[in-house]
Amino acid sequence: MLACLDLEGVLLPEIWIKFAEKTGIEKLKLTTRDIPDYDELMQGRLSVLKEKNLKIQDIQDVISTLSPLDGAVNFLNWLKSEFQVIILSDTFYQFAGPLMKQLSYPTLFCHNLIIDDKGVIVDYRLRQKDQKTKAVKALQSLNLKVISAGDSYNDIGMIKQADAGILFCPPKKVIEEFPQFPVATNYDEFQQLFIETKNRLLSNA
Amino acid sequence: MLACLDLEGVLLPEIWIKFAEKTGIEKLKLTTRDIPDYDELMQGRLSVLKEKNLKIQDIQDVISTLSPLDGAVNFLNWLKSEFQVIILSDTFYQFAGPLMKQLSYPTLFCHNLIIDDKGVIVDYRLRQKDQKTKAVKALQSLNLKVISAGDSYNDIGMIKQADAGILFCPPKKVIEEFPQFPVATNYDEFQQLFIETKNRLLSNA
User: Fold this and answer.
1) If phi over 0 gives left and psi between -120 and 50 gives alpha, with beta otherwise, what is residue A119?
2) pLDDT reported for residue A38
3) N or C terminus of chain B: which is more exposed, having fewer CB within 10 Å?
4) A69 contacts A35 by C-beta, under 8 angstroms
5) Which residues of chain A have pLDDT under 50?
6) Crossing angle between the packed helical segments A72-82 and A187-204, to the nearest 10 degrees
7) Burial class of residue B107 (count of CB atoms within 10 Å of its CB; 0-12, 13-18, 19+)
8) ipTM surpassing 0.90, yes or no?
9) Taking a C-beta distance cutoff of 8 angstroms, is the pair B156, B132 a contact?
């Protein structure tokens, strides 16, 4: 049985927000809540980085001072001992890298930044659209039972596609909109829901 | 970029063989080289376990005294820092489990034993036929570039399907039959081949 897990908001803090806080760059605090068009948001972020002359190494240096959420390392270690785990995230490998080390490098599928010879981030490339849902579908085609878990709208596709889903500390709006999914508000509850969900899927099998 | 890695012969010893040595049960030393029909071989193994009254817990106790191959832990830690890693193995979760702990639980796709309430292994269930090749294909459909690596005939499918392949300490016959694939004879060479292969795939991209 496979657990497909979101990364930011579940194991790590929101990287752009934390990066904005650390560097004091207000414009980088904008999210899809402020600018719903993702490409517009990302192009804006890249312009800010260029304007501030922040290269990939500078950014990674800041990101490597961040930490996983309290309790995330223990939770992930437990999860790996009970499930096969794949992290499905809409972040970029080059951003997550320094933090993945602190999580002992679980398997991560996400996206890539395009970086030139001088370390300037010139663009970004989504690996594929709606990658989380597609990944769960592809993994199910291998006769794996999948439990998906995440915190926000971009996780709903993979949660619906999975054999079962769990929400972890989601915004109130997400809970109201998707009352069919169980909600964990801390890692103890999250662990308990994974155990219960696994047992339910096994007894249905 | 994703590394799909075989388990036994690459990171772990051959579990059945080691188990046979530890317990002194000669009949369990038979492999597909002796009994080419896999189902016949497995049913034979299960009868021996039944005859000796070996339950899953007894077997796991023996297996937990085994160790990964010398250098495997370091190699895998390096590999995880440079690639996303999924282990594709034709072993069983219940056998590999005690050894996966020593490898810090990398993501593993393999097969299941059917165990009754008393801990007796009553049968086995392949997750799917030719699962390694199918897994690589499914992962490529997610726009992941895959490098597959293994040591034997059951790895050739996934090596051919992958964007590139590497053989690790294969039998002479396999080298002769598949001269198109580079061969590593130790972890240093294996690491070097992964780096070279990655660079080649990136420069072609």
Assistant:
1) left
2) 86
3) C
4) no
5) none
6) 10
7) buried
8) yes
9) no
Cβ of B127 within 8 Å of Cβ of A143? The answer is: yes
Is B142 in CB contact (< 8 Å) with chain A? Answer: yes
Q: Strand pairing partners for B12?
A: B8
Which residues on chain B are in Cβ contact (under 8 Å) with A141? 134, 138
> Can you name the residues that pair with B191 across neighbouring β-strands?
none
- The Cα angle at residue A133 between residues A160 and B150, in degrees rounded to 5: 125
Tokens of B118: 């008393």
Instruction: Report d(CA A15, CA A9) in Å as an integer.
Output: 9
Q: How far is CA A48 from CA A26, A55, B86, in A?
A: 10, 11, 36
Q: Model confidence over A126-165: pLDDT tens digits?
A: 999 999 999 999 999 999 999 999 999 999 999 999 999 9
Q: Per-residue pLDDT tens for A169-187?
A: 999 999 999 999 999 999 9
Distance CA A115, CA B32 (A): 49
Active site residues of B: 6, 8
